[in-house]
Specification:
The chain contains 18 helices and 20 strands. By secondary structure, the chain is an alpha+beta fold.
């Protein structure tokens, strides 16, 4: 039985002939086991723009989070020193109306706009960035992305308790001048200042409401939208921020962000007119969706891989998981081609590295393809050296998603049939899954990384010792040294060669098992404008608007 959700009243009547094929697809999905989720909120006026974010954000604190769903929300609520151009993602003025870079390219001077305000009317000044970036590096609770500010002079030393804050190259020269001094020239630093992890937060609110400052009743933000309401498992409702410096550019008055994890339900919501943008789709219907004009997968700066817990707390498992030969055997026993052709089916390509292709000037190393004979030989060698005949049962952990489940089932079969391994599967919802990954409470864990900026470093610096997003237990002094050396190299070609050497080391040690490179899977209504395809799949809603004439014409067909 299909439940009629509370928002059904908001769906405009649809022409029977135009939508017969859509509801046939919905029926197919329901028969596959999906259903329409009855969201729990009370009836509200339909938002100007609604999209499915696929999960509840872990937090709305820029310091804490590291996921794509969180980033989509934070880019609505906050703005950094620079923003992203909606088409090219090139840096454009944000809270800073202009900036200068010194001749040695180590000192950045940002000029904060005089009309920059917090949503409560307080002036936003350079001191807000000093506070927020110091909070980001707090030695007692550094951010997941804290290593990003190790680029700043004495930033790493301060985080490690080896320097005082006054020594760090971050300062407010005056209320409207923010100065950053880097350890060495960094080609991608300006782009980093548009990344959500480095957004400013309102000090008085953070300190007045610890752990609760990002709730709607307290939240003070500086971006194009306000946090109007948050109903867990229902939606986040945003409203236009009238005090945003560029409010005249913002054409959406209300935005609803839904947390629907089930892709079948998400597609149903799209096909029945409830949402304007669906960010992912069920793999069961991708072949059919490829025929639609509103679905056009494109190359995406992202890699899908499995993390391996090389520091397992279970001694019997640790003997295997900590051995690079065993990890290589797991990799070689994977048939990645069958996964992209039989499961994902949207044009993904099998991955033989961590860094995706397409980054200018970077020609990174590649692992060999599937080689079951070699995988079996490596496994036999490990067993012989350990003096055991069996590998303990291992578990693949994945977060809620039909495609993640399907991929895990395929790999479970491949490792079972090919290597004789007993593999169990475990599903956890997003927040629990992130915590299990962070605390190394897993054996093998489904993972992915989407580039935060178009440079190999956004992938490779994940696995430095102590990195906030490492989450594998991996640590190698040579690898760390190469990442540090690349960061200090001013010559672009030499720097990329060093990063390639670092990736070679990572692929030799294999704390991660590459599976495929991402493509986007956006379903977008034809009346949504200002939404442009790009390699990072970032779409600032500041620039999005609705062509009402096009919507009326579509509804009237």
């Amino acid at each position: 039985m299909v439940l009629v959700p509370w928002w059904a009243a908001n769906i405009a009547p649809m022409k029977r002939d135009r939508n017969r094929n859509l509801f046939a697809l919905v029926l197919t999905l329901l028969l596959l086991g999906g259903g329409v989720m009855a969201l729990q909120g009370t009836t509200m006026e339909k938002a100007d723009f609604t999209f499915n974010n696929a999960s509840e954000p872990e937090s709305l604190d820029p310091k804490i989070v590291s996921g794509v769903p969180e980033g989509r929300v934070l880019r609505c609520l906050y703005e950094g020193l620079v923003n992203m151009h909606p088409k090219t993602l090139a840096p454009v003025p944000g809270m800073a109306e202009r900036w200068e870079i010194s001749k040695d390219r180590r000192t950045y001077t940002f000029h904060i706009r005089k009309n920059a305000l917090w949503s409560n009317g307080d002036a936003l000044t350079a001191k807000d960035f000093v506070y927020s970036w110091r909070r980001f590096l707090d030695p007692d609770s550094p951010a997941k992305y804290a290593q990003l500010l190790w680029l700043v002079s004495k930033g790493k030393d301060y985080m490690l308790g080896k320097a005082q804050w006054k020594e760090v190259g971050i300062r407010a020269k005056d209320p409207h001048t923010f100065v950053v001094e880097l350890v060495h020239p960094t080609a991608y630093f300006l782009g980093l200042t548009s990344f959500y992890a480095l957004f400013p937060v309102h000090r008085a609110t953070v300190e007045a409401h610890p752990g609760m400052w990002f709730k709607p009743e307290h939240c003070v933000c500086n971006g194009p939208f306000l946090l109007h309401e948050r109903m867990i498992r229902d939606r986040i409702r945003l409203r236009k921020n009238p005090r945003y410096w560029d409010a005249d550019t913002v054409r959406l008055n209300t935005v609803d962000i839904l947390p629907v994890e089930d892709h079948v339900t998400g597609l149903n919501l799209y096909l029945t007119g409830v949402i304007d943008w669906e960010t992912d789709v069920p793999q069961q219907v991708i072949v059919d969706l490829m025929k639609r004009s509103d679905f056009a997968p494109r190359a995406y700066l992202g890699s899908y891989f499995y993390r391996v817990n090389v520091k397992s707390r279970h001694p019997d498992k640790a003997r295997f998981l900590s051995d690079p030969r065993f990890r290589l055997a797991l990799y070689l026993a994977m048939d990645r081609k069958s996964i992209v052709e039989g499961v994902t089916q949207a044009g993904e390509t099998p991955a033989r590295s961590l860094v995706p292709p397409g980054l200018p000037g970077y020609d990174g190393p590649k692992l060999p393809g599937t080689d079951l004979a070699k995988a079996r030989a490596l496994l036999a060698e490990v067993k012989r050296d350990l003096g055991v005949s069996e590998v303990p049962t291992l578990t693949i952990l994945y977060n809620t998603s039909e495609s993640h489940k399907s991929i895990a089932e395929v790999i479970q079969q491949q490792w079972g049939r090919g290597l004789g391994l007993d593999i169990k599967l475990e599903n956890q919802e997003w927040g629990t899954y992130l915590n299990s990954q962070k605390t190394l409470d897993y054996d093998i864990c489904r993972s992915a990384w989407i580039g935060d900026y178009p440079d190999p470093n956004t992938f490779l610096d994940l696995f430095v010792t102590g990195g906030g997003n490492n989450n594998t237990g991996y640590s190698d002094a040579r690898y760390d040294a190469l990442i540090d050396k690349a960061a200090r190299e001013a010559d672009k070609a030499k720097r990329l060669d060093i990063l390639s050497e670092a990736e070679s080391k990572l692929l030799e040690d294999l704390p991660i098992l590459p599976i495929y490179y991402y493509v986007t899977k956006n379903l977008l209504r034809p009346w949504v404008k200002g939404f442009y395809p790009n390699i990072q799949n970032v779409h600032p809603l500041k620039f999005v608007w609705i062509d009402e004439k096009a919507r009326r014409e579509y509804d009237g067909r």
